[in-house]
Amino acid sequence: SKLTNLGHLEMTWRSRVHFHPLLVRILHKSRLKYYGKPEKKMDMPYQAYFEVADGSGMMSMVLWNSLCPEWYHSMKVGTVLLLAKYAIKSSYPFKTHPTPGDSQMKRFATIEICLNVRDPPTEINIIPEEMVKPEWGLPEVKYRFITRSELDDLPHNHSCDVIGLVTFVGRAERARKREHSEDFWLYRWAHAIDGTSEQPFVLELFATSQPDVFEHIHPMTYLVCTQMRVMTENPSRTVYLTTSNESQIFIKGWHKGQPYTKDAKVKNFIQWMESQSEADQIKKTVIGGYYPFPRPPDSFLKY
Asked: Which parts of the chain span the membrane according to its record (predicted)?
């Protein structure tokens, strides 16, 4: 069929009502957002953002309302989509943006693709990976993995991906989204090691739209966290990583077929793990309990 590309869409969208089909790969995926309010009677007030790309560049794509429960879990990072009868509108200016793995990729930030159940009803097709042809020119998913030895040199709010062996996982805790609010964030602390430093990654993991993973993080599992943000606590210079709106978390049982399995730093970590004694590592693991972080000073005078 006659296809268009993202670059051509940006140049011509104002002069068209109907658009040719698009062939794109998902590079980033946001958590699912619920925007329902008691006074608004909507059946499925959900929304999710994706960053999709073809050979011309990258653009945001928004999945709306009842399409979210139908498609959200099928649309994974790396999935190739054939889209028809979609809508185009100006970008929402206050949306978060992931840091692309490929810094050279062109970003089309003025418009976004809208997938709706009507006006017009979008046609979505997932192309199996074995049917994707090189001549389509779709970019591969790229990552920004770091090792623990590199973490201390990174600036505040830097975006990165990490892999490590879980040595500690805390209980799930809640924090109010806003003061006096009825809404809470759910999060837990975890430590993961990768053999490059005596110190572990300290990870503040908020519940994303992956409850099946969040609830089953446990010691001795290989943990992958993408699109994490570096947080530096001053004046102590305590460094930890926290999840962002586009973070994805993976544990044992979810790694197979993920694009990051081809990354060099992931392969190096697997090699290091194969050289370790499982019995020795198990002795160092801890689960549950209260984890105050950043830790208070060891004396009241310093406090």
From this structure: none
